[in-house]
Amino acid sequence: MGGNRMKYASIPAIAILLGLLPGIPAFAQQGPPAYGPSISLAAAKRVMAAAEKEAISNNWQMTIAILDSGGHIVLMQRLDNSQLGSEDVALSKARSSVNFRRPTKVFSDSLAQGGANIRLLTIEGLTPLPGGVPLIHDGLLIGAIGVSGGSGEQDDQVANAGANALNPSP
C-alpha cells in the first residue's frame, strides 16, 4: 500500500514539499496528516452525496471522484452533461491530494505567486488545480475527493462540501 504513494515524486519534489517554496511552509511546520485506514464505502457515499448536492444545487455539471488512502477509486460519478475530460482531471486532483496529503489548492495558490514556485510544475503526478481535498477522520488521511467540471473555485467548493460531510459539526 505505501510503496506506490510517492512513486511520482522525486527528491527535488520532496524538498519542495518540505517547505522550500513560499506558500507551503505552513504545512511544513504543522505537518500533513498521517495516512490512516481506507475510507469505508458508507463514508464515501456520504461524501459523494454532499458533493453531488452542492454541485446540483448550483447547476454545475461535474465529475466527482473519491479515492481511498492508497489512491484507489472507491466511488466516481459524472453528473449529467459533465464534460468527458473531467473524469481524468477529477481523478488526478484526488490522487494528488492523497499522494501529497494536502489540498491541491495549496499548490495552485503557490503557483499564482510565481517565482520559484513555478518549479511545482516539474513534479510528476501533481495536479496543481483547486478541487482536490484530503478526507481526514480522527486526524488521519483516509482518502481524498477530486472534483472537476467548473471553475477552480467551484470545483473546490464542491470538494469541500463533500469533505465536510465526513465529520459533520455537532
Question: How does this model look, in words?
Answer:
By secondary structure, this protein is α+β, with helices and mostly antiparallel strands. It has helices at 11-20, 25-30, 41-57, 86-100, 104-112, 152-166; strands at residues 34-35, 63-68, 73-78, 132-137, 140-148. Strands 1, 2, 3, 4 and 5 form a 5-stranded mixed sheet that branches. A hairpin with a 2-residue loop joins strand 4 (132-137) and strand 5 (140-148).
Task: For the structure shown, list the relevant keywords.
170 residues, alpha+beta, Beta-Lactamase, 42% helix, globular, disordered N terminus
Write a compact overview of the structure shown.
With 170 residues, the protein is an alpha+beta fold. It has six helices and five strands, in the order ααβαββααββα. Strands 1, 2, 3, 4 and 5 form a five-stranded mixed beta sheet that branches.
Strand-helix topology:
Blueprint (H helix, E strand, L loop, with lengths): L10 H10 L4 H6 L3 E2 L5 H17 L5 E6 L4 E6 L7 H15 L3 H9 L19 E6 L2 E9 L3 H15 L4
Parallel strand pairs: 1-5
Antiparallel strand pairs: 2-3, 2-5, 4-5
Helix pairs in contact: 3-6
Would you identify the CATH architecture? 2-Layer Sandwich
Q: What structural category arises from helix and sheet content?
A: alpha+beta
CATH fold annotation = Beta-Lactamase
* DSSP strand content: 15-25%
- The first-to-last residue Cα distance is 34 Å
Low-confidence stretches: 1-18, 20-28
Major sheet, described briefly?
5 strands, mixed
